[in-house]
Amino acid sequence: MKLFLFLSLCLCIPRMLPAQDGDFDFGNISSRALQMKRYDADTTASAVVLKEFGKTSIDNSQKNILVHTYHVRIKILRDQGIDKATFVIPVRKSATMGKEQVYDIRGSTFNTEGGSLRESDLKQKNVFTENKSRYTDLIKFTLPGVRMGSVIEVAYTLSSPYIYNFREWKFQSDLPKMYSEYWAKIPANLDYNISLIGYLKLSEDKKSVIPDCLITMDGGKADCTLLKLGMKDIPAFKEEKYMTAKSNFLSAVHFELSEIHRFNGADEKVAKTWGDVDQQLRTNKDFGGQLKKGESFFRKALDTLLSGHAEEDLRARRIYAFMQKWYRWDGYTGIFCETGIKNAFEAHKGNIGDINLSLVAALRAAGLPAEPVLISTRDNGTPHDLYPVISDFNYVLARVTTPKAVYLLDASRPLLPFGVFPMACINGSGRVIHHHQPSEWLVIKAPVMRKEIDMAVLTLHDKGRITGTITRRYDGYLALAKRRDIHRFTSSTEYLEDLSSRWDDIQILADSIGNLEDPGKPLTETLKVIISGTVDSADPRIVINPFFHPFIRENPFKSAERHFPVDFGAPEQLYTVLTLHYPAGYHLVSFPTTTLLALPDKGGRYVVEKNGFGNTLILRTMTRQNQSVYQAAQYPALREFYNRIVQSHRADLIFSTN
């Protein structure tokens, strides 16, 4: 969940103040900064941002060009912080909007040598441009002469044609910051929705008006609002397991253009209502236009496939299976068609928009009610729900309704069962774009669990040698993950070698896998194994850890507190049954105790049960997380839950012959 504080942009301010330069002097390094050995607020920090300043405005001399200046000074405290001397500046580009430009790059490293200050400056020949994708270039450079104790400084200017997204500012990063300040100079003829994200509070929040800051060539004038936003003593943002995109939680300020007031008196709304967006999408040539053409195209192209199946659920499954096998995903996401439905069909490949909009069109051609669902993937951030921002969405699924159920489908992956979509798509809500009705939000929930059942039947022999079989059954998202894992290898031998290397003290003699190519069924795996128990040299005892898999070696939740949710994506259930036969004359002298742990509000359970008869031991364990997401308030209980599981998994079976 994002934490928003919406800032009202009001130009009716009594004080009329001129803009003043809030930047700091490049190269004016204090002796205190040079002599600094550690940062007391975070003694583990490898580096700390001493000062950071940014300013964004609209260039008066150029139409619709944002100009952003950036300046940062960093102290390197440890060798591990030397990599902070490498800077990467993403720049956007598109065929229609043009490309962002970076210029006036300055960079220097400051060291003390023989009691004197020495500056090593960045040479322009060491600044490189890398083509990351069709949408992004990367400007890269590394400052020279950086070592522990150095102070580094970088400044640059970026110009951008993308005024619809005023330059955001991230107060928080993976480094702690002593102070970060951002100025935004916004002309009165532009209205922006401004949101402050994160749980940290501003230490400075000021507004002033600059008269006639924008003068156009045809005589138009506008005042500007100057926002001065600052934070001090900012802790480093530390990513933890089971979280969505860190952009959801980093303390930052975002801008979204909502309305333009033209100098001729006309007003142009940019941040539309969802009704406006619905209409735009339906008429967009790469979205609604493709769906309309695609429906007609598939009536002809899939005539044989669409006929002969009156039952709607079977028709939907048949179409999905065909589309899933027909296309190869080119690795690009997106909600729009890149190459077009007809071209993608003929090429057998396309981006996510090409493939899943084609699926919607094919389902509609078969007479099934199908709609596209716009989503933002887990690594892309959560979309705004207060006003529509189409750029928030980077993925599209197909929703189809049959008499049996409503399904969300993704035909881009060959291993996805019908009705299951990638876990990366489980990220809050998606927007259903109906054919003729208004669009609506849809909560995206996991359609299946993460589930695994392990059944081990083992025999303990003399001297601690154990033989037997382990049968593993994977369901839901764990089956999907296991199939992907197996398909990474070129042969079963290579997979078996890798599996053996990951299992301590377990030698795998044979492996049989079932339903590997049938995603609609659970994946099964039967292993013939030899396990080495530990023989204590001091006395005739055999030590065996019965929690062979899944074995939780350490608590994934390290921090004492957490300010954001724990997001597993889907509920999980892990179940094991160990049946161990041991020889006559062996005595079980130590074993895991019966355990029952429960999370509050039926959030989950952990159970260990021991039974036995004669010379046979049966040990059952079950770990169940009933929620996909645990809120920050539930974190202490969840952390302790895992602490107790780790302790339980350290308990051994100890046999003695005395």
From the structure above, extract its key features.
eight-stranded mixed sheet; 10 helices; 16% helix; disordered N terminus
What do these coordinates show?
The protein is of the alpha+beta class. The chain is built from ten helices and 38 strands. Strand 25 (450-460) and strand 26 (465-475) form a beta hairpin. Helix 3 crosses helix 7 (352-365) and helix 5 packs antiparallel against helix 7. The model is unreliable at 1-20 (pLDDT under 50).
* Beta-strand content: 35-45%
**What's the overall average pLDDT, rounded?**
89
Helix/strand structural class: alpha+beta
Q: What about the largest sheet?
A: 8 strands, mixed
Please estimate the helix content: 10-25%
Summarize the structure.
The protein is α+β, with helices and mostly antiparallel strands. The protein has an 8-stranded mixed β-sheet, with no helix packed on it. Strands 27-28-26-25-32-36-35-34 form an 8-stranded mixed β-sheet. Strands 1, 11, 13, 16 and 17 form a 5-stranded antiparallel β-sheet that branches. Strand 4 and strand 5 form a beta hairpin.
Q: How is the topology of this model organized?
A:
Blueprint: E1 4-7, H1 31-35, E2 47-58, E3 66-76, E4 86-94, E5 98-99, E6 101-113, E7 116-121, E8 128-131, E9 136-142, E10 151-160, E11 169-170, E12 177-187, E13 190-197, E14 204-215, E15 221-234, E16 252-261, E17 267-269, H2 274-283, H3 288-301, H4 303-306, H5 312-326, E18 328-329, H6 341-347, E19 349-350, H7 352-365, E20 370-375, E21 395-401, E22 406-409, E23 429-432, E24 440-443, E25 450-460, E26 465-475, H8 476-487, H9 492-502, E27 506-514, E28 523-532, E29 534-536, E30 541-544, E31 566-567, E32 572-581, E33 587-590, E34 595-599, E35 604-613, E36 616-625, E37 629-630, H10 635-649, E38 653-656
Parallel strand pairs: 2-12, 18-19, 25-32
Antiparallel strand pairs: 1-13, 2-3, 3-10, 4-5, 4-9, 6-7, 6-10, 8-9, 11-16, 12-15, 13-16, 14-15, 16-17, 20-21, 20-23, 21-22, 23-24, 25-26, 26-28, 27-28, 29-30, 30-38, 31-37, 32-36, 33-38, 34-35, 35-36
Helix pairs in contact: 3-7, 5-7
